[in-house]
Amino acid sequence: MSKKPTRKTIITKLDNIFSQYIRLRYSKNEISECVTCGKQDHWKKLQAGHFISRKHYATRFDEDNVQVQCSGCNVFRYGEQYLFSKYLGVDLSEELLMKSRKIQKFSDNELLEMIELYTKKVNNLLI
Ligand SMILES: [Zn+2]
């Protein structure tokens, strides 16, 4: 039996599988679209961008808070938060902002369950 994974390893794994799910969920023929500029590309070349920064755990793995973005928008244009908010709409943007301010502490088990859930979802999308 290998030793218990560290918290950091678990978070990284969940970030990765969650990102894959976000990029795949609306893809057609493996092509997804950046929500802030409309650029289309293979889902593997796109990124999962956070409307509210990843540092807020309450919204880090929220399916509304995380959407497909190209690297231009996500990295070079710092996430295009204004356009991101327009895409989400005022109500949802506000809701996510409120949610992000709450303190969310996931247990290791909760995180592992999310990894399992998103691994299944990704596998279903890849069939
Ligand atoms: Zn873009």
Largest sheet composition: 2 strands, antiparallel
The hetero molecules present are:
zinc ion
Strand order of the largest sheet: 1-2
Gyration radius (Cα, Å) is 15 Å
**Shape label:** globular
**Based on helices, strands and strand pairing, what is the structural class?**
mainly alpha
Alpha-carbon distance between the termini?
31 Å
- Helix % is 40-55%
Low-confidence stretches: none
How many DSSP-defined strands?
A: 4
Relative strand content: 5-15%
Order of helices and strands: HEEEHEHHHH
Mean pLDDT: 96
Number of alpha- plus pi-helical segments: 6
Describe the structure.
The protein has 127 residues and is mainly α. Helix content is 53%, strand content 11%. The chain has 6 helices and 4 strands, in the order H-E-E-E-H-E-H-H-H-H. It has helices spanning 7-25, 57-60, 71-76, 81-88, 90-100, 108-126; strands spanning 31-33, 40-42, 47-50, 66-69. The strands form 2 sheets. The chain has a two-stranded antiparallel sheet with strand order 1-2. The mean pLDDT is 96. The structure holds zinc ion (ZN). Zinc ion binds at residues 34, 36-37, 39, 69-70, 72-73.
What attributes characterize this protein structure?
127 residues, mainly alpha, two-stranded antiparallel ribbon, two-stranded antiparallel sheet, 53% helix, 11% strand, binds zinc ion
Secondary-structure map with pairings?
Layout: H1 7-25, E1 31-33, E2 40-42, E3 47-50, H2 57-60, E4 66-69, H3 71-76, H4 81-88, H5 90-100, H6 108-126
In short, what is this structure?
It contains six helices and four strands. The protein is mainly α.
